[in-house]
Design a protein that fits this description.
19 helices; 3-stranded antiparallel beta sheet; mainly alpha; TolA/TonB C-terminal domain; 57% helix
Amino acid sequence: MIDSSRFPVALLLLVSMAFASAQESGAGTPDEPAAPADFVQKGQIVPVSDEGIDEGDDEATVPEIDDDELLDAEFQLFKELMSENVLDEADTVAKRVVELSIRTHGPQSNQFAKALTNLAIVQFQTEQYDAAVQNFESAIEIIEDNEDRLNIQLINPLKGLGAAQLESGRPDLASQTFQRAVHVTHVNEGPHNMDQLELLESIAETHIRMGDMDAAKDAQDTIYAINIREHQLDAPALVPALMRRAAWQHRAGFIFDERATYRRAIRIIEDHEGKESINLVEPLIRLGRSYFYMDTSGQASFHDTSMASGEIYFRRATRIAAESPDSSWQVVAQAGLALGDFYIYGNIVQRARQAYSDTWELLSQNEESLKVRRKQLESVITLKQDKLPMYASSDTQSSSDDNTNPLLQGRVTLNYEVSPRGRATNIKLVEASPEEFERMVSTVQRELRRRIYRPRLEDGVVVATPDQVLSHRFFYRQSDLDALRAEEAAR
């Protein structure tokens, strides 16, 4: 299991972009963008067959394939590889598409810009962040030259550029890029458009990385205001927005706000669907999970309660899942796993084992449920983890870049075992590069000891799982390393 402290919202943006961008690349002219639903299915390669060929012919005529048809076929292959997460092959195909786009439409065409965007998306997902930044920037420059600085075709490469900048250690640049993308949506779709919401979520996450919680909260408040404007205040259509808002509040550490948001979603569902609605299961589970955490917002007007207070929400979710006529084995399993996780958090091991064992039996009924069992119970699942520091120090993040002191990447890798109680044991250091950053090593080790896991099961029984790996990437500057070496030499 590898944890590189990735950026979930940006990653979701890029996954969605991969298909939107790729389908656009098969479109006709720059003035006629493709529909956002799917790839344009034109000009497919025609396979050769024996039908219609005279046996007396010395040579069979092979249908000619022009570059446009080949380009469309390669884009289709790229889409399939991305959907299957075959990134190495997708990278190769994306590079072929770039070459074909140059040959077919030229190095200054919008089609070439879209091909560069797709290549950059693959590079982002394979952690080639510098290359991704360069290709996103090149795509943006081409579109600006062909259209203008406010053209709607800029949104996808701007999304990707912001995500790549963030992962390469420049949240300040990422924030500016995401803000520009939001401005482009305002110009093209109006100030209250719904398409900007993912960008605003990315801006909020970027501000969290920079430690500016007030700015992050402002971005989330804007998202909420747009959703309120789009939906009625207590309409069921508002519930998905409330669930996303609560999830962000959880990440930001605003646990009391998170609980209030989930309770509001629950009230809306109860008012419109009744108190036994199957749609209550997920918000009840999430509300229960909020009691595993301490609030970090500093709101003294709230008073925390014990973790045991969350049990009532898990039990209610479990009862509704078991008794509702609209339920399914998937919902019952979800509630059962959540109850087992609650007991693991509380170190109530026997009850946790019973909940997991019951769920194992439920998921052993057919091939479909066995797939879920393999994913949820036959491997270790991380239940609780805190963010690891991205930078060697606050000075590392705040220092300006120059050629003599750029951001460099370090890594800490640990090997450990997950015990039947869901805790990391037998922790061993595998790699510390550079080895001088001992404080970062200690921080990663301390965080690993605090993590909580859903333990693995074999034949319905909880067991220990050895040979787990945590690999944490962080940023430092040469000046940081030089200072540590000087300090060591002075001892």
